[in-house]
Amino acid sequence: MQETVLVGVDWGTTNLRAYAFAADGSVRAKTARPTGITRMSVPYGDLLEELCGELGAGADTPALLCGMVGSRQGWIEARYITTPCTLDGLVEGLVSAPHAPRRVLVVPGLDSQSGSAPDVMRGEETQLLGLMDGVGGAERLVCMPGTHCKWVRLAAGRILDFRSYMTGEAFAALKDHTILGRQISEGAVHDAAAFAKGVGMAQEARGRGPGGLLNLLFGVRTLGLFDRLDPAAAASLMSGLMIGAEIADALGPQPPAEPVVVVGSAGLSARYRDAAEALGVRTTIADEDIATRGLWAIARAAALASR
Q1: Mean pLDDT of the 42-70 span
Q2: CATH of 164-285, one of 3.30.230.10, 1.25.40.20, 3.30.420.310, 3.40.50.10490
Q3: Same fold yes or no, 6-122 and 164-285
Q4: So what's the pLDDT on residue 305?
Q5: In whole angstroms, what is the distance from residue 241 CA to residue 260 CA?
């Protein structure tokens, strides 16, 4: 069995995923737990040691952590690095975790200052580094669906800029805490036709600004009032409206020449792919192991792990 030379942990808000890396960069073991930074019941160092033991890592095996563990609410704050940023820039921003029984480094997040308000990401930067080898030197647009979806521009080994959209969180808030939720059946499954209809409605309203989406969202209620929308399809229609509006804004007036790279869970990535392609935009879905490739790239550049 190959020796573990690095433990990498993608440590988020609610969950974590930990990996044992062999000297060739392959993942020889992995584990996951529902113990993100908001669900901690023991000190970070103690939980990390449990993970290292489970993964079969020796006492002197270093660890590299990314994600919300580096936020102000995490183990230690790893300050944001302003885009554009390279692998070397992220390595320079690595922070040592305090009171750790082994060498532990934490990856910084990224910020963008190009808009009217700052934008931030934490954890996605590691996934993006895992994409670099596969997208070449030309500029590419990356879509990273989630609670706060990120749209990122990459080129020539650099993370150029990005924008965040609160689509996932706004959808949950509208569904659970507004009058629109009354139109939605509990436990309804995804309705592809209703979703596509929502995407099309959002496209038709393109150019009307954010007020246009707000008007369309009210239609989820009124279509139900007039018995023109099955409650079982209401959530899918609303999802299509919101994702369609997000994609239209993120793409701007000129679709990208290269396919948009979609990075995320299988179900959500499929919805963004379907919505983008309905709007005439080609996509490709990234491999699920890009976070591990990013962790390994950072560890190698920081001389934390060697072949």
Answers
A1: 97
A2: 3.30.420.310
A3: yes
A4: 81
A5: 20
Name residues whose C-beta falls within 8 Å of residue 51's C-beta, 6 or more positions apart in sequence. 7, 9, 16, 18, 31, 33
Residue from 32, 68, 84 nearest 147 by CA = 68
Distances (CA, A) of 77 to 73, 94, 96, 106, 160: 8, 10, 10, 8, 23
Report the candidate in 285, 286, 302, 193 with the shortest Cα–Cα distance to residue 239.
Answer: 193
187: Cβ contacts below 8 Å, ≥ 6 apart:
none
Contact assessment for residue 58 and residue 4, using Cβ atoms and an 8 Å cutoff:
yes
Domain ranges of the chain: 6-122, 164-285
| Apex 266 CA angle, 263 and 269, nearest 5 | 50
At the second CATH level, the architecture of 6-122 is 2-Layer Sandwich (3.30)
Please report which confidence band the pLDDT of residue 39 belongs to, taking 50, 70 and 90 as the band edges: very high
Q: What is the mean pLDDT of residues 281-304?
A: 94
Q: Enter the tokens of residue 155.
A: 């080129």
pTM, entire model: 0.93
